[in-house]
Recover the amino acids of this structure.
């Protein structure tokens, strides 16, 4: 993606991101998944992750304990963190998604995690570039 810089606008950048995702190997995907914090446990010093997981900030202790339990079970079953685009979701919604997805076959869940990674990346790119576009939509930085 850096080789093709600059992009005309955010949509062109997002399309390039999707194209780059399409070329990833399984190991590349696992590396991307590993960069994410567990749901309910944002990494220290990562304000972006904490903001994305704001829905767990007001979670009850029982919900946080259940998130931790399910995170561990999920990682043991699938070999990577549970990935969900958490922006705008409450702890209960994340718990429901974890409960629903933990029973999936491994291949299905790997695909689900990949779709969530794509959503997270698109949100982060849009956020990072929102102040980097000119009135015509061209990306300037």
């Amino acid at each position: 993606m850096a080789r093709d810089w600059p992009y005309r606008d955010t949509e062109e950048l997002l399309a390039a991101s999707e194209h780059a995702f399409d070329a990833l190997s399984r190991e590349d995907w696992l590396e991307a998944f590993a960069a994410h914090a567990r749901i309910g446990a944002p990494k220290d010093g990562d304000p972006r992750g904490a903001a994305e997981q704001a829905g767990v900030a007001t979670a009850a202790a029982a919900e946080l304990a259940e998130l931790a339990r399910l995170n561990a079970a999920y990682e043991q079953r699938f070999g990577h963190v549970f990935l969900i685009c958490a922006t705008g979701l409450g702890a209960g919604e994340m718990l429901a998604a974890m409960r629903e997805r933990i029973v999936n076959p491994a291949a299905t869940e790997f695909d689900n995690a990949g779709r969530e990674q794509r959503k997270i990346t698109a949100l982060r790119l849009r956020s990072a570039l929102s102040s980097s576009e000119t009135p015509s939509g061209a990306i300037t930085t």
Residues 106-129 form the longest helix (24 residues). The chain has a mean pLDDT of 86. The CA atoms of residues 2 and 53 lie 28 Å apart.
